[in-house]
């Protein structure tokens, strides 16, 4: 029974991560209790390939060096602007996700009023825009971010809470730090699984 539960948990995690890159959204609605090892490994390889391709396409789309950050001398506002980001898995082997796998890639805008907007690599039909709030202290920037997910048929698929703790480079053009995701059930009361990873981003230049 314990092994069966572990497989179920891993299946949920892979389903949700896979949905970021157009994989079938089976994580919330009826994931099977037992997945053959060969099928599980194949799904993981496909998910990683889609994630890597997504990251490469984003890198190709924004290849100019960023201009000097106008807020570089204002630590609490230095993060304001648009960023190209990646979430990289770290410490999720218990869910069958290898270290170094790309969990998501996309764009973020951090606003001077303390709000944030993410355009995720998720398929638009499953909800790829989400919002957060941020603040600053001497240890860096903290983000508390929520995403409302939907299944391909339009039905709700639960809420995910993203947390980031990042610092900005001396030149103001790159971010790095840690991130975590808690995926909740539809009522929003039970955490289905928890993901940890690293966060990196580069500033998008104006021209």
Write structural notes for this entry.
- The structure is a single chain.
- The protein has an eight-stranded antiparallel barrel with strand order 1-2-3-4-5-6-7-8.
- The chain is 21% helix and 39% strand.
- Mean pLDDT is 77; it is low at 1-40.
- The chain starts with a helix and ends with a strand.
- The longest helix is centred in the N-terminal third of the chain and has 25 residues, at 37-61.
- It has helices at residues 2-19, 37-61, and strands at 81-89, 102-110, 115-119, 129-137, 140-150, 156-168, 174-184, 191-203.
- The protein is α+β, with helices and mostly antiparallel strands and 207 residues long.
- A hairpin with a 2-residue loop joins strand 4 (129-137) and strand 5.
- Helix 1 runs parallel beside helix 2.
- The chain contains two helices and eight strands.
The total number of structural domains is: 1
Strand adjacency order, main sheet: 1-2-3-4-5-6-7-8
For the residues shown, what is the average pLDDT?
77
Point out poorly predicted stretches. Answer: 1-40
Fold-level CATH name: Lipocalin
Overall CATH class:
Mainly Beta
Rg result: 17 Å
CATH architecture: Beta Barrel
H/E order of the elements? HHEEEEEEEE
What's the structural blueprint in terms of helices and strands?
Layout: H1 2-19, H2 37-61, E1 81-89, E2 102-110, E3 115-119, E4 129-137, E5 140-150, E6 156-168, E7 174-184, E8 191-203
Antiparallel strand pairs: 1-2, 1-8, 2-3, 3-4, 4-5, 5-6, 6-7, 7-8
Helix pairs in contact: 1-2
Short description:
The protein is α+β, with helices and mostly antiparallel strands and 207 residues long.
């Amino acid at each position: 029974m314990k092994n069966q539960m572990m497989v179920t948990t891993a299946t949920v995690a892979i389903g949700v991560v896979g949905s970021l890159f157009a994989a079938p959204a089976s994580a919330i609605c009826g994931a099977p209790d037992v997945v053959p090892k060969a099928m599980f490994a194949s799904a993981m390889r496909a998910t990683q390939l889609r994630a890597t391709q997504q990251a490469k396409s984003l890198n190709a789309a924004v290849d100019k060096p960023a201009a000097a950050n106008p807020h570089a001398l204002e630590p609490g506002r230095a993060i304001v602007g648009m960023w190209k980001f990646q979430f990289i898995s770290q410490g999720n082997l218990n869910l069958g996700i290898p270290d170094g796998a790309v969990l998501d890639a996309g764009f973020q805008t951090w606003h001077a009023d303390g709000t944030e907007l993410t355009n995720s690599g998720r398929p638009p039909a499953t909800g790829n825009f989400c919002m957060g709030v941020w603040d600053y202290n001497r240890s860096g920037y903290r983000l508390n971010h929520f995403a409302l997910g939907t299944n391909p048929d339009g039905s709700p698929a639960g809420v995910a809470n993203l947390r980031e703790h990042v610092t900005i480079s001396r030149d103001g053009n790159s971010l790095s730090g840690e991130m975590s995701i808690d995926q909740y059930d539809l009522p929003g009361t039970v955490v289905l699984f928890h993901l940890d990873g690293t966060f990196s981003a580069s500033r998008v230049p104006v021209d």
